[in-house]
Design a protein that fits this description.
The complex is a heterodimer. Chain A is of the alpha+beta class. Chain A is built from twelve helices and 16 strands. Chain B has five domains: 103 residues, no CATH class; 137 residues, no CATH class; 220 residues, P-loop containing nucleotide triphosphate hydrolases (Rossmann fold, 3-Layer(aba) Sandwich); 81 residues, Elongation Factor Tu (Ef-tu), domain 3 (Beta Barrel); 93 residues, Elongation Factor Tu (Ef-tu), domain 3 (Beta Barrel). Chain B is elongated, with a radius of gyration of 38 Å. Classes of the chains: A alpha+beta, B alpha+beta. Chain B: It comes from Trichocladium antarcticum.
Chain lengths: 404, 762
């Protein structure tokens, strides 16, 4: 995304004039989805179906391209098509529509840059600004393609800086070995063929991309060999190049969540340095590591983390607050403010606040923990104590005899 | 309407009705024929002269039609048939529908009049034994819709009816007896005597199945049959006027029954083809055909769509039909080829060998596959020649020592890399037991496959590499993990094969050292001391596997060999009486069926012709045939490793890891479950892989409900943040997709290539 005007800066945002942005790539829609929340006002080009009645009473329906301003009621993001549908009520009238009519604007990447303007209903707070900064950021590494596979299952994923898109899931039944029939080789090569054709059709390889092949055992290695031999057989130069550049990594399963392991591996660290994904993945691992040690420096769940932040335990020297970015999206104002407050407090204390995308595997791991976790600078014990007591009391009265 | 249109809009049922009723429609003669007919009729009437009053115009016309308007032949025919009939011909073929050119067919009915159409006594019914390779259903078609031929359906319906009759026989008996009193009873004594003599034996055997309609003809005073129907029939012989008909031969009587019995039931005013069908069979055709009934019932059971009510003219009320459909309950009934064994009693009767399966586990390169290869060679399951051939092949890629392992490792990747990747199964038999070997991979990447193998096993052989360094690294690696896994899969008996002792010169100290360490951690893992056995072996040389070691250095060991230990192991108790559960471990295509599956029956039993349900796809299939130990069998019970050939199912619905179950008591599907888990590692809300046999699904721990006391199971702490290793907790796991799960199943949770927990579903 780009600012529509050169004069616009992050520092000087005119709340009344709004922020005008240009959609320059499909990925922008993901950012737009994070930025636009319920209650905001969006001014964007839209298609409106207009029905006119002629003097004779016949009706003519036509689609009119017009610029509309709507007050957002809901948003829907389609990750595969990279389309954001924003629904709301029209707030300024024009030739075709009157105020209060409902309209759904579909924002998507098109050839010519699309310009849209956004007015935040509650102003640009720190989290909104951080999202905007990320959206505008110029240097963005090319998306990485990863095929996570095991015998009979392959997930073709596209890992961008902000999300993981499972482009295709390939499943096939591999006949296992039996004493009667000896070759499961046929089954495997059929599976590789299916995976390869899906990979070629799902991913655009005209731009150079890193291809990661990950699997337990030898599946990924064999798949690479298969690609090479297929490339040679078909005299397909591009396939040969893809196969040659493919990086084979170990993973424990063929499911998407094994991407965490894939991105930790040294082979990947060598090729992908500073992607957001790897950092987040590392942070999550660090969190789990601390949890294991149970030294009171890692907490998850809203209440304990709130307490820790309030105490200033998530501060300078390793304090990290991990929050799922879904918390800031389409939520009631009070809750959003609370979490923005947490983020601001952590930043104030000199700690790091990370908004993890729930569209990434690391975000999903955080999701499992309730969407919020914190690495503390010093141990705090029993942050969940009163919590426990409360719920425990209830249980006592209910059961009476429960031994704790 | 053009002909083309007519064909296109052709309604099957209408066509049938038309066929049945073509008597009305087909008598339209072409004008030429009509003219010829008129002329011919006049000629015939003239030729017959005075006798003309004895025949009707219709008869003349029919005769003419039959003889292609040949007047002479018609006259001859009419004369012999109607005017001067032979004495036995009592009833003329009168009152036939006007001028039906096909009327001649009805003469067939006349000939077979005393045939008990569709009323074959039960004891005479053929038992249809399907040929072993018989294809089910009609030829052609994809087999998507379970279609059985009309004949099969009729047979099934008839069988069903016969059974129902048996149940309601008592009630019907009196009515039927009365009916017989009225109409039958005509059994001339002359015929009784030889019959009674010749068939007394036969009648005795059949008396239990004898029904009222079976024309048992017995001489009264000599025999008093316990069967009520037959005795009632005999005791009240009413002398009826004898019918002027050729006497039945004894053979015919045996075949068709007393002609009088049949004769009197036939309403003779008019008859058509199958005129003497019993009412039950006639009913069958006024109601939906058995095919329709089966299809409707299946549709009803399978897809919950309302049963397709065939619209038929003049059928009884829809309720009655629906009631009948309901009563039939054909959908869950096995296909007609099922022999309806009581599998459990059959199993008790059959004094076959015990079956047991064991899994061979251990750290990678402990020599599991090689040891099993040697074992099979020594037991002569494979011959030396095969091994020599493998050895030559192994030599060509410079891995001579792998020759024995290649007996089980047959995949090219496995051979090229020298590791087992997937479970290999093989069989051998000892004097008392038939064993199934499940050779598991040792490499950590293939633990899902090892779990699949362990889930099929009754007990385990843990192979430990005794060579220096290897044992220690194994103990940290898969030796430990495998032991944990097999214990948590419910295997309680373990035989530790201390392998490669020849490499350490059969050192007893080394053996004892390993024994101490391994038994130490095995008892920590939860194996009872009495269920652990240690055998020092050499897998490569074959010492102490089947034969005792001849090496003098190994003479200190006097305990049982590996095979002896195996024979001492009692297989676990099978859940035979429970509903069928079988986890699919392999799906492939064979000549017998495009959907052939292999696996071990976890619970219950299965027999040929059974309907089964595949979960999670909830698709129904039929068992076409069963194979156990490469031989076809009629049934199989829990604990057996079998191959099932399925029919009436698309391969797309059957995947490895799915569960085959009883359609009446299916295993539920769930995507969230609560389990009592023993943690091997730290547990917190995180992503895990759930393993259950071949089933492998991704999911996550959603909440940790409580920490439990290891012994009593009481709640120790509610909602803990984290579960420490070696503690028990109640956790809720959410899966990405629906999987078949039920209470009491054992599952293993893994994460990041590590086994983190195992436990029981609650």
């Amino acid at each position: 995304m780009r600012f529509a005007t050169k004069r616009q800066t992050f520092e000087a945002i005119d709340e009344d004039a709004g922020v005008s942005l240009l959609i320059v790539e499909p990925e922008d829609m993901w950012h737009a989805n994070n930025m636009i929340s319920v209650g905001d006002v969006i001014h964007a080009p839209a298609f409106r179906k207009v029905t006119t009645t002629t003097a004779t009473g016949s009706t003519i329906g036509k689609s009119v391209r017009t610029n509309l301003s709507i007050k957002v009621k809901s948003t829907f993001f389609d990750p595969l098509a990279s389309e954001l549908k924003v629904s709301g009520n029209v707030i300024n009238e024009n030739e075709w529509v009157s105020v209060g009519q409902h309209h759904t604007i579909t924002l998507k990447y098109e050839k010519g840059d699309i310009k849209f303007t956004i007015w935040k209903s509650h102003g640009w707070d720190s989290v909104a600004l951080q999202t905007l900064r990320e959206a505008i950021s110029e240097d963005r590494p090319e998306a990485v393609v990863a095929v996570v596979m095991q015998e009979g299952l392959a997930n073709i994923c596209l890992i961008t800086d902000f999300r993981t898109i499972v482009k295709q899931r390939v499943e096939s039944t591999i006949p296992k070995k039996r004493s009667s029939a000896k070759d499961s080789a046929g089954g495997m090569s059929a599976f590789y063929e299916k995976t390869l054709s899906n990979l070629r059709s799902a991913i655009d390889f005209t731009v150079p991309r890193t291809l990661l092949l990950a699997s337990p055992g030898f599946v990924a290695q064999d798949f690479r060999t298969y690609m090479q031999s297929e490339g040679a057989r078909r005299a397909d130069k591009s396939l040969q190049r893809i196969a040659k550049d493919a990086v084979v990594v170990h993973s424990s399963t063929g499911y998407v969540h094994s991407l965490n392991e894939v991105l930790k591996s040294s082979e990947v660290q060598k090729t992908m340095h500073h992607t957001r994904f790897t950092t987040e993945s590392t942070l999550m691992d660090q969190f789990y590591e601390r949890m294991r040690k149970d030294d009171g420096r890692a907490w998850y769940g809203t209440k304990p983390v709130e307490k820790a932040v309030a105490e200033g335990a998530v501060g300078r020297g390793g304090g990290v607050l991990l929050v799922n970015n879904a918390f800031f999206r389409s939520m009631d104002v009070g809750t959003r403010k609370k979490y923005v407050g947490l983020v601001d407090k952590v930043k104030e204390d000199g700690g790091e606040a990370r908004l993890l995308s729930s569209d990434h595997e690391s975000g999903k791991r955080l999701d499992a923990l309730g969407g919020i976790a914190a690495l503390l600078t010093y141990p705090m014990l029993d942050l969940d104590e009163d919590d426990e007591a409360e719920s425990g009391d209830v249980e006592y009265s209910a059961e009476g005899t429960t031994v704790i | 309407m053009s002909r083309h249109q007519y064909i296109r809009n052709l309604d099957y049922r209408d066509a049938i009705d038309e066929f049945e009723g073509y008597a009305e429609e087909e008598d339209e003669l072409s004008p030429e024929d009509r003219a010829l007919m008129t002329a011919g009729t006049i000629d015939v009437q003239a030729a017959l002269g005075v006798e003309v009053s004895k025949v009707t115009v219709a008869q003349i016309e029919e005769a003419l039609w039959h003889y292609y308007f040949d007047v002479d032949k018609s006259v001859t025919y009419l004369t012999t048939k109607f005017i001067n009939p032979p004495p036995k011909e009592t009833k003329p073929a009168a009152k036939q529908p006007h001028g039906n050119p096909f009327q001649s067919r009805t003469s067939l009915a006349h000939v077979f009049r005393d045939m008990p159409w569709g009323n074959v006594p039960k004891h005479r019914e053929t038992t249809f034994i399907p040929p072993p390779m018989a294809r089910l259903g009609l030829l052609g078609g994809s087999g998507a819709a379970p279609k059985i031929s009309k004949l099969q359906a009729l047979a099934a319906a008839r069988k069903k009816k016969a059974e129902e009759k048996g149940a309601t026989q008592d009630k019907m008996e009196s009515a039927r007896t009365k009916m017989n009193e009225l109409s039958v009873g005509d059994t001339p004594a002359a015929r009784e005597v030889p019959l009674a003599g010749a068939f007394s034996k036969r009648l005795k055997t059949s008396e239990s199945t004898a029904q009222g309609r079976v024309p048992l003809v017995l001489s009264e005073p000599t025999r008093s049959e316990p069967s009520q129907s037959s005795s009632a029939l005999v005791r009240e012989p009413e002398i009826m006027p004898s019918v002027d008909k050729a006497p039945q031969s004894m053979f015919a009587q045996t075949l068709f029954g007393s002609h009088a019995d049949v004769f009197h039931r036939v309403p003779q005013e008019s008859y058509s083809l199958y005129a003497d069908l019993p009412p039950s069979v006639l009913d069958a055709f006024t109601k939906p055909s058995p095919d329709d009934v089966v299809l409707a019932a299946q549709a009803k059971a399978g897809k919950k769509t309302p049963a397709a009510q065939p619209k038929k003219k003049g059928t009884p009320s829809a309720d009655a039909v629906a009631g009948e459909v309901g009563e039939l309950k054909i959908s869950d009934a096995p296909l007609p080829k099922s022999r309806n064994f009581d599998v459990l009693s059959e199993f008790e009767k059959s004094k076959s060998k015990k079956t047991a399966s064991f899994v061979v586990v251990g750290h990678v390169d402990a020599g599991k596959s090689t040891m099993m290869g040697r074992l099979l060679l020594e037991l002569k399951v494979i011959d030396q020649r095969t091994v020599d051939k493998l050895r030559r092949e192994a030599e060509t890629i410079g891995k001579t020592s792998f020759a024995l392992a290649w007996v089980l490792d047959q995949r090219s990747e496995e051979r090229a890399r020298g590791v087992t990747i997937d479970i290999a199964t093989n069989r051998f038999e000892t004097e008392h037991t038939a064993f199934t070997i499940l050779d598991a991979p040792g490499h950590r990447d293939f633990i899902p496959n090892m779990i699949a193998g362990a889930s099929q096993a009754d007990f385990a052989i843990l192979v430990v590499d005794s060579s220096t360094g290897a044992f220690e690294s194994g103990l940290k690696g898969q030796t430990k993990e495998h032991s944990l896994l097999i214990r948590s899969m419910g295997v309680s008996r373990i035989i530790v094969a201390v392998n490669k002792l020849d490499a350490v010169a059969w050192s007893q100290e080394r053996f004892d050292e390993i024994k101490d360490q391994v038994s130490g951690f095995l008892s920590v893992t939860g194996f009872q001391q009495k269920n652990i056995a240690f055998v020092p072996v050499s897998g490569l040389q074959g010492d102490n596997l089947v034969r005792r070691s001849t090496d003098p250095a190994a003479s200190w060991y006097t305990g049982p060999t590996l095979v002896e230990e195996l024979e001492n192991s009692e297989p676990s108790v099978r859940a035979l009486a429970k509903p069928l559960r079988m986890t699919i471990s392999e799906v492939y295509r064979t000549m017998q069926s495009p959907v052939t599956i292999a696996g071990r029956i976890d619970a219950g039993s299965v027999q040929m012709g059974d309907a089964v349900l595949i979960q999670p796809s909830s698709e129904k299939a039929y068992v076409k045939s069963i194979q156990a130990d490469d031989a076809p069998v009629d049934w199989a019970v829990a604990g057996q490793n079998i191959v099932l050939h399925l029919s009436h199912i698309d391969p797309i619905h059957v995947k490895v890891g799915d569960i085959i179950c009883d359609p009446a008591k299916p295993i539920p599907r769930a995507d969230t479950f609560t389990m009592k888990a023993l943690a091997f590692d730290f547990l917190m809300p995180m992503q895990v892989d759930v393993h259950r046999g071949r089933l492998h699904a991704a999911g996550r721990i959603e909440t940790i409900t409580a920490l439990l006391d290891k012994v009593s199971g009481a709640v120790v702490k509610k909602k803990p943040r984290i579960v420490k290793p070696a503690t028990v907790a109640r956790i809720v796991v959410k899966l990405d997709q629906l999987v078949p799960l039920e209470k009491g199943l054992r599952v293993v949770l893994r994460s990041g290539g590590q086994t983190v927990a195992a436990g029981l579903l609650e």
